[in-house]
Write a sequence for this structure.
């Protein structure tokens, strides 16, 4: 990891010396650690259940990024970040249309018929499941890219 050394990172990128493992870490940092918006801050502090779902999302992002990295061939794979980021967008749009939009509509219905103590956790759990589905589909797409896995010896 280069952390703050952008000059060294640029030089190593130019010379193709950045490992696929480093790219996987960057992909996770960009996607997984940016999840604090999932914790629903209110006028009071976040509850333990808010934090539990936050860490569930973080775990799903870590495992999903790892699954995509392995599907790409792990250390022997190539162009992980290129594939991961570009496929992440396309798969994300599909999942949003097929899963997230219906979940948002469900949240409106739940908010009308169920108490907040039930609707909130049900919706949070639904989004964790949707995120797991998303990463599963993403790893399948990464694996299907030609030469994503090294040839068997």
């Amino acid at each position: 990891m280069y952390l703050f050394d952008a000059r060294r990172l640029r030089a190593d990128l130019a010379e193709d010396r950045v490992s696929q493992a480093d790219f996987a870490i960057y992909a996770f940092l960009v996607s997984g650690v940016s999840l604090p918006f999932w914790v629903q801050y209110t006028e009071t502090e976040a509850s333990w259940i808010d934090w539990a779902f936050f860490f569930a999302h973080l775990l799903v992002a870590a495992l999903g990024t790892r699954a995509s990295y392995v599907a790409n061939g792990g250390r022997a794979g190539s162009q992980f970040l290129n594939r991961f980021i570009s496929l992440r967008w396309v798969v994300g749009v599909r999942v949003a249309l097929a899963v997230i939009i219906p979940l948002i509509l469900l949240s409106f219905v739940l908010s009308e018929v169920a108490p907040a103590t039930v609707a909130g956790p049900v919706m949070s759990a639904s989004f964790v499941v949707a995120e797991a589905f998303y990463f599963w589909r993403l790893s399948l797409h990464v694996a299907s890219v030609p030469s994503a896995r090294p040839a068997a010896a």
In short: Helices lie at 6-14, 20-31, 48-71, 80-113, 116-143. The mean pLDDT is 79.
